[in-house]
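Morning F.,

Quick status update on the modeling queue. The single chain you submitted on Monday has been processed. Sequence for confirmation:
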Amino acid sequence: MAFLQQVTLQGRHAALVPLSPDHLAGLQEAARDGELWNLWYTMIPRPEAMAAEIERRLGLLARDSMLPFTVIDGEGRVAGMTTYMNVDGANRRVEI
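Structure tokens below.
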């Protein structure tokens, strides 16, 4: 059984849903709004590199080291992505 389990976190103004390749077009559009890949204080992939970034994050999920989310705004549009990253399962409970 995987240590990390995908969940949806729902709030009044936004939701964090499990990242999926199905979110590619929305994430590409969100990045284009303001050319976010040019910002110095964050790392946003260019639209043409978004599919590889989704694949990378899902690979880290499979290795139990990242829990990636797509951010959905209050109107149901993809607004971006975020993660719970560098997960360290050293303190996880082991069933015997």
